[in-house]
Amino acid sequence: MNEFRPVANPESGHTEVMTLDPSLKARIEARQVTVWYGQKAGVKDVDMPIYANKVTALIGPSGCGKTTFLRALNRMHDLTPTARVTGEVLLDGVNVYAAGVDPVEVRRKIGMVFQKPNPFPTLSIYGNVVAGLKLVGIRKKSLLDEAVERSLSQAALWDEVKDRLHAPSMSLSGGQQQRLCIARALAVEPEVLLMDEPTSALDPISTQSIEDLLTDLKKHVTIAIVTHNMQQAGRVSDFTGYFLNGDLVEFGPTNLLFTTPKDKRTEAYITGRFG
Amino acid sequence: MRNLQARYTRDRLILLVVIVGTILAALPLTLVLGYALVNGFSSLNWDFFTKGPKPPGELGGGMAPAIVGTLVITGVGLLMATPFGIGAGILLAEYPDNKLNPTLRLLSDTLNGMPAILKGLLAYVLVVKAQGSFSGFSGALAMAFIMIPIIAKTTESVLKLVPWNIREAGLALGLPRWRVILSLVLPAARAGVVTGLLLATARAAGEAAPLIFTAFGNTLLTLNLSQPMDALPLRLYAYAISPYEDWHRQAWAAAVVLLGLIVLTSLLARWVTRGR
């Protein structure tokens, strides 16, 4: 896993990269992860770390397997009867696919935000945020209130909705709904937050407010974000993995990958020659 | 330009065909409704709702036992059918790869297409034979057999309309699947499920055949489910084939009340799903 670590090279100019924090720790470690849809592999033999308290971007053209890989991390493929995952996904050293590991427990630690905002339509703003807590038996109002304010503040939505917490969640705008979904995921205090193109359905202003969030959020959680927008990956991420046709072509610190890609295919993609 | 004219003509022609077809389809329904209303309304009076039947030859009397009986039998039937119907609907919609599903679907479809009288026979064998007497309960069971496949079918189809992403959102929060279904998916489909319950009720309430050898009929008002119980369709049938003019009029009145109940239930279903 060290091959992408920068080699000390005083002439390269990537000083930031050279001072990589030695305490950098992989929260998630994917080992030879392959996702099968029937006989066809959606992603093949992916080895990749997701570093703790960093933002890792997964980029690549449509259909390259980046979302498929992301969903393998919290066992979302369990729900697709035709899908099968081989390899290991180590969360703090424990394989989430090992026998005896409850997928429900895995998903509690690895939260997810989806491409389209998907608040629970029958619940209020408050109800959405506490859904994960309430449905596992936390009923104490003071605890729930606290979680609502904390998560909504982390998702930069608190000021906009604090006076109408019991309004229907569908009364919010698309960008607000997406931040509500982020707050909902944060309320259960996951260790990792997976985001599957969280801004692709949003306008530029909402997109920016969510991008701004990530920088603050990574103090608390580890983030992996799928995006088809390279500029976004460049703006928000510390590490980037480039996927093509189901392979992880290149992985490295974002600034390095974007300026001096090692692989010609990566270079072709980031310079906009295709994709 | 002539081409355009031809298209307009063809458009009008098709529209005409559609309108005529609609009228032809609606005509029998309107006639039945109209005939029942004209004949039935004149026989409706306070006694009809409050009194029991009079012996043959005596004028007057009413259908209080039958009205109460229909409400009780369909109500109890609905209570029995709801958990099974909704449960089956959930299994069919939410666990499509479950091993039980092909069998369940076959059973549900067969039960749906099975004549109502056979469901009465089933309730007869299960309850009346075993118990040794006709009873309101056996009638309610027969009603439940009619309702279960209808409820299962509507529940399945409305659950399938709930966007998949709601389930994913719930599961991604670390909720177990049953929790997601009961607390998030089912509430989102609530209006549709309730409509299914009401439609099943309306459908079952009008059936006479399954009650003939289960609830059997009773001229006395009773709320005791272990006793034979009267029901509007039963009474309607008995009075309609009787030789008495007064009973014929009351049969029409019973038809109007039954229609009223069913229309009311359907309206309730509409109201529950309003604005969706």
Structural account:
The complex is a heterodimer of chains A (275) and B (276). In chain A, 35% of the residues lie in helices and 24% in strands. The radius of gyration of chain A is 19 Å and the shape is globular. Chain A is of the alpha/beta class and 275 residues long. The longest helix of chain A has 14 residues, at 141-154. Chain A contains eleven helices and ten strands. Chain A has one domain: P-loop containing nucleotide triphosphate hydrolases (Rossmann fold). With 276 residues, chain B is mostly helical. The radius of gyration of chain B is 23 Å and the shape is flat. Classes of the chains: A alpha/beta (275), B mainly alpha (276). Chain A binds chain B through residues 74, 76, 79, 81, 104-109, 111-112, 114, 116, 118-122, 131-132, 135-136, 181, 184-185, 188, 190, and chain B through 96-97, 163, 165-176, 179, 183-184, 187-188, 190.
In short:
The complex is a heterodimer of chains A (about 280) and B (about 280). With about 280 residues, chain A is of the alpha/beta class.
Output the keywords.
heterodimer; A: 275 residues; alpha/beta; Rossmann fold; 4-stranded antiparallel beta sheet; 11 helices; globular; disordered N terminus; B: 276 residues; mainly alpha; MetI-like fold; 2 domains
Percentage beta strand of chain A: 15-25%
The biggest beta sheet of chain A is recorded as: 6 strands, mixed
Shape of chain A: globular
Residue windows where pLDDT falls under 50 for at least 5 positions of chain B: none
The string of secondary-structure elements of chain A, in order, is: HEEEHEEHEHHHHEHEHEEHH
Oligomer: heterodimer
